[in-house]
Design a protein that fits this description.
Distance between the termini: 41 Å
Helix content: 40-55%
Shape: globular
Strand content: 5-15%
Order of helices and strands: HHEEEHEHHHH
Protein name: IrrE N-terminal-like domain-containing protein
Largest sheet: 4 strands, mixed
Radius of gyration: 18 Å
Number of domains: 1
Strand order of the largest sheet: 1-3-2-4
Structural class: alpha/beta
């Protein structure tokens, strides 16, 4: 049993079914290696037919670490700018998971001025609905988004013979020494 579903909310069979469903949703998504949030958003945006714009935002400690605001012409994925990069990757993958699964938080009117104008003119009721969605991992939609995030990040960080390793320039010397020492 996964930590975000209690025994009362699902059983092992339901969880296996949910994992299979999520795996089907992400099967054909080309996740960039190494992980690149902008590139992932382009790939998923193309798939769902609307662009996804990333917005780093200072999120309150007692609030969600990410949320998606769906406009009429684009989705705006807000993520906590004050957390570590690896955590930001997970937040972004989780929110992208909501979009892949077709979860919606309501629509905001897009403005020509772009995302900053959008954030300042949001309907408070729509914001409350979006924030209420993130009450923990006890709902099916949250579990589904979490599983999708895990699957996307596994694709981005897993090794297979078909993939080539991308080593950051500042680590290339160390990696080369390790490879030489291991043969």
């Amino acid at each position: 049993m996964t930590p975000w579903l209690s025994r009362d909310e699902g059983n092992d069979k339901d969880m296996r079914r949910l994992r299979r469903h999520c795996a089907r949703l992400v099967r054909d998504i080309e996740v960039p290696v190494p992980f690149d949030a902008e590139a992932l958003c382009r790939v998923v945006g193309d798939r769902i037919g609307q662009p996804i714009h990333l917005l780093p935002v200072a999120m309150p400690a007692d609030g969600p670490s990410g949320l998606v605001i769906s406009g009429t012409r684009a989705h705006y994925l807000c993520y906590d700018s004050g957390t570590r990069p690896l955590h930001q990757q997970h937040i972004i993958a989780h929110e992208v998971g909501h979009l892949i699964a077709g979860h919606t938080t309501g629509h905001a009117e897009d403005h020509d001025e772009g995302a900053p104008a959008l954030l300042s003119t949001l309907d408070p009721a729509m914001v409350r609905r979006a924030l209420a969605r993130d009450t923990g991992y006890d709902r099916r939609e949250e579990a589904e988004a979490e599983i999708i995030a895990d699957l996307l990040l596994q694709k981005a960080h897993s090794w297979s013979p078909e993939r080539t390793w991308h080593v950051p320039m500042d680590a290339a010397d160390v990696v080369a020494r390790i490879e030489r020492s291991l043969g």
